[in-house]
Protein backbone atom coordinates (compact mmCIF):
# COMPACT_ATOMS: atom_id res chain seq x y z
CA UNK A 1 0.00 0.00 0.00
CA UNK A 2 1.40 3.37 -1.03
CA UNK A 3 1.47 6.37 1.28
CA UNK A 4 0.92 9.94 0.10
CA UNK A 5 1.60 13.20 1.87
CA UNK A 6 -1.66 15.16 2.13
CA UNK A 7 -0.87 18.83 1.46
CA UNK A 8 -3.63 21.34 2.15
CA UNK A 9 -4.22 24.74 3.80
CA UNK A 10 -4.56 24.94 7.57
CA UNK A 11 -8.12 26.28 7.43
CA UNK A 12 -9.31 23.23 5.43
CA UNK A 13 -7.77 20.68 7.81
CA UNK A 14 -11.03 19.46 9.43
CA UNK A 15 -12.97 18.76 6.25
CA UNK A 16 -9.91 17.24 4.56
CA UNK A 17 -9.41 15.04 7.64
CA UNK A 18 -12.97 13.69 7.33
CA UNK A 19 -12.46 13.02 3.63
CA UNK A 20 -9.14 11.27 4.36
CA UNK A 21 -10.65 8.85 6.88
CA UNK A 22 -13.46 7.95 4.47
CA UNK A 23 -11.17 7.37 1.46
CA UNK A 24 -8.67 5.26 3.42
CA UNK A 25 -11.50 2.85 4.28
CA UNK A 26 -12.70 2.64 0.69
CA UNK A 27 -9.39 2.48 -1.21
CA UNK A 28 -6.01 0.78 -1.14
CA UNK A 29 -4.27 3.97 -0.08
CA UNK A 30 -2.91 5.71 3.02
CA UNK A 31 -2.22 9.38 3.69
CA UNK A 32 0.24 11.25 5.87
CA UNK A 33 -1.74 14.24 7.14
CA UNK A 34 0.77 16.77 8.54
CA UNK A 35 -1.84 18.21 10.90
CA UNK A 36 -2.90 14.87 12.40
CA UNK A 37 -0.15 12.34 11.60
CA UNK A 38 1.15 12.82 15.13
CA UNK A 39 0.03 15.01 17.99
CA UNK A 40 1.01 18.64 17.51
CA UNK A 41 0.42 20.97 20.40
CA UNK A 42 -0.24 23.96 18.12
CA UNK A 43 -2.94 22.06 16.20
CA UNK A 44 -4.69 21.07 19.43
CA UNK A 45 -4.86 24.74 20.41
CA UNK A 46 -6.00 25.85 16.95
CA UNK A 47 -8.80 23.24 16.91
CA UNK A 48 -10.21 24.79 20.09
CA UNK A 49 -10.27 28.29 18.58
CA UNK A 50 -13.32 29.51 16.66
CA UNK A 51 -12.42 33.16 16.18
CA UNK A 52 -10.32 34.03 13.12
CA UNK A 53 -8.59 36.89 14.92
CA UNK A 54 -7.56 34.52 17.71
CA UNK A 55 -6.11 32.08 15.18
CA UNK A 56 -4.13 34.78 13.35
CA UNK A 57 -2.82 36.19 16.62
CA UNK A 58 -1.74 32.73 17.77
CA UNK A 59 0.07 32.03 14.47
CA UNK A 60 1.88 35.36 14.67
CA UNK A 61 3.15 34.40 18.12
CA UNK A 62 5.14 31.47 16.70
CA UNK A 63 8.86 31.84 17.28
CA UNK A 64 11.43 31.35 14.52
CA UNK A 65 12.44 28.05 16.13
CA UNK A 66 8.84 26.78 16.14
CA UNK A 67 8.34 27.73 12.47
CA UNK A 68 11.57 25.97 11.56
CA UNK A 69 10.53 22.84 13.46
CA UNK A 70 7.13 22.74 11.74
CA UNK A 71 8.67 23.07 8.29
CA UNK A 72 11.38 20.48 8.96
CA UNK A 73 8.80 17.98 10.22
CA UNK A 74 6.70 18.51 7.07
CA UNK A 75 9.72 18.09 4.80
CA UNK A 76 10.65 14.86 6.58
CA UNK A 77 7.14 13.49 6.04
CA UNK A 78 7.29 14.37 2.34
CA UNK A 79 10.62 12.56 2.02
CA UNK A 80 9.13 9.46 3.66
CA UNK A 81 6.06 9.40 1.39
CA UNK A 82 5.55 7.76 -2.01
CA UNK A 83 4.05 10.92 -3.46
CA UNK A 84 1.92 13.94 -2.64
CA UNK A 85 -1.77 14.82 -3.00
CA UNK A 86 -2.28 18.58 -2.79
CA UNK A 87 -5.48 20.60 -2.40
CA UNK A 88 -4.68 24.06 -3.77
CA UNK A 89 -6.94 27.09 -3.43
CA UNK A 90 -6.47 30.84 -3.08
CA UNK A 91 -4.83 30.53 0.36
CA UNK A 92 -2.37 27.74 -0.27
CA UNK A 93 1.11 29.27 -0.13
CA UNK A 94 2.54 26.51 2.05
CA UNK A 95 0.84 23.83 -0.05
CA UNK A 96 2.42 25.14 -3.25
CA UNK A 97 5.87 25.15 -1.61
CA UNK A 98 5.32 21.56 -0.49
CA UNK A 99 4.45 20.61 -4.07
CA UNK A 100 7.64 22.26 -5.30
CA UNK A 101 9.71 20.33 -2.74
CA UNK A 102 8.07 17.03 -3.71
CA UNK A 103 8.85 17.79 -7.36
CA UNK A 104 12.52 18.30 -6.50
CA UNK A 105 12.50 14.76 -5.05
CA UNK A 106 10.87 13.32 -8.21
CA UNK A 107 7.75 12.34 -6.27
CA UNK A 108 4.48 11.82 -8.19
CA UNK A 109 2.24 14.84 -7.60
CA UNK A 110 -1.56 14.84 -7.72
CA UNK A 111 -3.36 18.15 -7.42
CA UNK A 112 -6.98 19.10 -6.77
CA UNK A 113 -7.60 22.70 -7.84
CA UNK A 114 -9.90 24.93 -9.85
CA UNK A 115 -6.82 26.30 -11.63
CA UNK A 116 -6.51 23.24 -13.87
CA UNK A 117 -4.96 25.22 -16.76
CA UNK A 118 -2.34 27.04 -14.69
CA UNK A 119 1.00 26.56 -16.45
CA UNK A 120 3.02 25.97 -13.28
CA UNK A 121 0.56 23.49 -11.81
CA UNK A 122 0.35 21.61 -15.11
CA UNK A 123 4.16 21.49 -15.20
CA UNK A 124 4.49 20.05 -11.69
CA UNK A 125 1.46 17.72 -11.61
CA UNK A 126 1.35 14.07 -12.55
CA UNK A 127 -2.43 14.46 -12.73
CA UNK A 128 -4.81 17.33 -11.96
CA UNK A 129 -8.42 17.06 -10.77
CA UNK A 130 -10.75 20.05 -11.15
CA UNK A 131 -12.73 19.20 -8.03
CA UNK A 132 -12.81 16.73 -5.18
CA UNK A 133 -15.76 14.85 -6.71
CA UNK A 134 -13.59 14.07 -9.76
CA UNK A 135 -10.89 12.72 -7.46
CA UNK A 136 -13.46 10.62 -5.59
CA UNK A 137 -14.75 9.12 -8.85
CA UNK A 138 -11.18 8.32 -9.93
CA UNK A 139 -10.39 6.62 -6.60
CA UNK A 140 -13.65 4.65 -6.62
CA UNK A 141 -12.73 3.34 -10.06
CA UNK A 142 -9.06 2.48 -9.56
CA UNK A 143 -8.75 2.34 -5.72
CA UNK A 144 -5.37 4.11 -6.01
CA UNK A 145 -3.73 7.22 -7.47
CA UNK A 146 -0.93 5.79 -9.63
CA UNK A 147 -2.38 3.62 -12.38
CA UNK A 148 -1.08 1.65 -15.37
CA UNK A 149 -2.52 0.72 -18.76
CA UNK A 150 -3.51 -2.63 -17.24
CA UNK A 151 -5.51 -0.87 -14.51
CA UNK A 152 -7.35 1.16 -17.16
CA UNK A 153 -8.13 -1.98 -19.19
CA UNK A 154 -9.49 -3.79 -16.14
CA UNK A 155 -11.63 -0.80 -15.14
CA UNK A 156 -13.02 -0.47 -18.68
CA UNK A 157 -13.84 -4.18 -18.78
CA UNK A 158 -15.64 -4.01 -15.43
CA UNK A 159 -17.55 -0.97 -16.67
CA UNK A 160 -18.53 -2.85 -19.83
CA UNK A 161 -19.71 -5.89 -17.86
CA UNK A 162 -21.71 -3.66 -15.52
CA UNK A 163 -23.31 -1.93 -18.51
CA UNK A 164 -24.14 -5.26 -20.16
CA UNK A 165 -25.64 -6.53 -16.91
CA UNK A 166 -27.86 -3.47 -16.62
CA UNK A 167 -28.91 -3.82 -20.27
CA UNK A 168 -29.87 -7.48 -19.74
CA UNK A 169 -31.83 -6.53 -16.62
CA UNK A 170 -33.62 -3.76 -18.52
CA UNK A 171 -34.55 -6.05 -21.43
CA UNK A 172 -35.96 -8.58 -18.96
CA UNK A 173 -38.08 -5.91 -17.22
CA UNK A 174 -41.66 -5.07 -18.21
CA UNK A 175 -40.62 -1.64 -19.52
CA UNK A 176 -37.79 -3.17 -21.58
CA UNK A 177 -40.10 -5.75 -23.13
CA UNK A 178 -42.63 -3.07 -24.05
CA UNK A 179 -39.87 -0.95 -25.63
CA UNK A 180 -38.61 -3.91 -27.67
CA UNK A 181 -42.15 -4.76 -28.76
CA UNK A 182 -42.74 -1.21 -30.03
CA UNK A 183 -39.42 -1.28 -31.92
CA UNK A 184 -40.15 -4.64 -33.58
CA UNK A 185 -43.52 -3.36 -34.76
CA UNK A 186 -42.07 -0.09 -36.10
CA UNK A 187 -41.01 0.40 -39.74
CA UNK A 188 -37.35 0.68 -38.74
CA UNK A 189 -37.56 -2.52 -36.71
CA UNK A 190 -39.23 -4.46 -39.53
CA UNK A 191 -36.57 -3.27 -41.99
CA UNK A 192 -33.73 -4.22 -39.63
CA UNK A 193 -35.16 -7.69 -39.08
CA UNK A 194 -35.66 -8.17 -42.82
CA UNK A 195 -32.02 -7.25 -43.56
CA UNK A 196 -30.87 -9.55 -40.76
CA UNK A 197 -32.77 -12.50 -42.23
CA UNK A 198 -31.25 -11.87 -45.67
CA UNK A 199 -27.72 -11.76 -44.23
CA UNK A 200 -27.86 -14.96 -42.15
CA UNK A 201 -27.66 -17.50 -45.07
CA UNK A 202 -24.68 -15.67 -46.64
CA UNK A 203 -22.93 -15.43 -43.28
CA UNK A 204 -23.51 -19.12 -42.56
CA UNK A 205 -22.27 -20.12 -46.02
CA UNK A 206 -19.07 -18.06 -45.64
CA UNK A 207 -18.42 -19.60 -42.23
CA UNK A 208 -19.04 -23.15 -43.46
CA UNK A 209 -16.83 -22.80 -46.55
CA UNK A 210 -13.95 -21.40 -44.51
CA UNK A 211 -14.48 -24.11 -41.91
CA UNK A 212 -13.91 -26.79 -44.53
CA UNK A 213 -10.60 -25.24 -45.58
CA UNK A 214 -9.39 -25.03 -41.98
CA UNK A 215 -10.57 -28.56 -41.20
CA UNK A 216 -8.78 -30.05 -44.21
CA UNK A 217 -5.59 -28.20 -43.34
CA UNK A 218 -5.51 -25.94 -46.38
CA UNK A 219 -5.35 -22.93 -44.01
CA UNK A 220 -3.64 -22.84 -40.60
CA UNK A 221 -5.32 -20.49 -38.13
CA UNK A 222 -2.09 -20.10 -36.12
CA UNK A 223 -0.48 -18.32 -39.06
CA UNK A 224 -2.79 -15.32 -38.69
CA UNK A 225 -2.53 -12.38 -36.28
CA UNK A 226 -5.00 -9.57 -35.66
CA UNK A 227 -4.69 -6.91 -38.38
CA UNK A 228 -5.23 -4.16 -35.79
CA UNK A 229 -3.44 -5.16 -32.58
CA UNK A 230 -1.35 -8.16 -33.69
CA UNK A 231 -2.79 -10.56 -31.09
CA UNK A 232 -3.89 -14.19 -31.40
CA UNK A 233 -6.16 -16.14 -31.74
CA UNK A 234 -8.14 -14.51 -34.53
CA UNK A 235 -11.61 -14.53 -36.01
CA UNK A 236 -12.51 -13.85 -39.66
CA UNK A 237 -14.14 -10.55 -40.53
CA UNK A 238 -15.89 -10.29 -43.91
CA UNK A 239 -16.57 -7.00 -45.64
CA UNK A 240 -18.61 -8.90 -48.20
CA UNK A 241 -20.13 -12.28 -47.37
CA UNK A 242 -20.40 -13.11 -51.08
CA UNK A 243 -16.58 -13.13 -51.19
CA UNK A 244 -16.36 -15.72 -48.41
CA UNK A 245 -12.72 -16.55 -49.20
CA UNK A 246 -11.66 -12.89 -48.63
CA UNK A 247 -11.49 -12.06 -44.94
CA UNK A 248 -9.60 -9.87 -42.46
CA UNK A 249 -8.10 -11.64 -39.42
CA UNK A 250 -9.12 -9.88 -36.21
CA UNK A 251 -8.99 -10.82 -32.54
CA UNK A 252 -12.33 -11.09 -30.74
CA UNK A 253 -12.10 -7.61 -29.16
CA UNK A 254 -11.14 -5.81 -32.39
CA UNK A 255 -13.68 -7.84 -34.36
CA UNK A 256 -16.44 -6.67 -32.04
CA UNK A 257 -15.41 -3.01 -32.41
CA UNK A 258 -15.16 -3.23 -36.21
CA UNK A 259 -18.55 -4.93 -36.46
CA UNK A 260 -20.19 -2.28 -34.27
CA UNK A 261 -18.72 0.54 -36.36
CA UNK A 262 -19.44 -1.39 -39.59
CA UNK A 263 -16.02 -0.42 -40.97
CA UNK A 264 -15.36 -1.07 -44.62
CA UNK A 265 -19.01 -0.66 -45.63
CA UNK A 266 -19.84 -4.33 -45.45
CA UNK A 267 -22.04 -5.58 -48.25
CA UNK A 268 -24.82 -7.87 -47.22
In CATH, what is the class of the largest domain?
Answer: Alpha Beta
Order of strands side by side in the largest beta sheet? 2-1-3-4-5
Measured between the Cα atoms of the first and last residue, the distance is 54 Å
Task: Flag low-confidence runs.
Answer: 263-268
Give the amount of beta strand, in percent.
Answer: 5-15%
**Helix amount:** 55-70%
CATH architecture of the largest domain: 3-Layer(aba) Sandwich
Q: What structural class is derived from the secondary structure elements?
A: alpha/beta
Give the H and E element order: EHEHHHEHEHEHHHHEEH
- Average pLDDT works out at 81
Total number of domains? 3
What would your notes on this structure say?
The protein is of the alpha/beta class. 56% of the residues lie in helices and 10% in strands. It has eleven helices and seven strands. A five-stranded parallel beta sheet has the order 2-1-3-4-5. Strands 6-7 form a two-stranded antiparallel ribbon.
Task: Name its key features.
268 residues; two-stranded antiparallel ribbon; 11 helices; 7 strands; 10% strand; elongated
Topology:
Elements: E1 3-7, H1 13-26, E2 30-32, H2 41-48, H3 52-60, H4 64-79, E3 83-87, H5 93-104, E4 109-112, H6 119-124, E5 127-129, H7 132-142, H8 149-172, H9 174-185, H10 187-215, E6 235-237, E7 248-250, H11 252-261
Parallel strand pairs: 1-2, 1-3, 3-4, 4-5
Antiparallel strand pairs: 6-7
Amino acid sequence: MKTYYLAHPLKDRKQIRQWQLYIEKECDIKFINPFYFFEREEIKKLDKMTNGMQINAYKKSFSAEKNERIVEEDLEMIRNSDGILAFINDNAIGTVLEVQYAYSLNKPIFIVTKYINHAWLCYYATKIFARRSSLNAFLRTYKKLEITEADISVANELKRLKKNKSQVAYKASFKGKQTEKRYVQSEKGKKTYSNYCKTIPKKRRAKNNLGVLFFEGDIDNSEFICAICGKQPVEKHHENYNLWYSFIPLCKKCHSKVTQLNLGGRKK
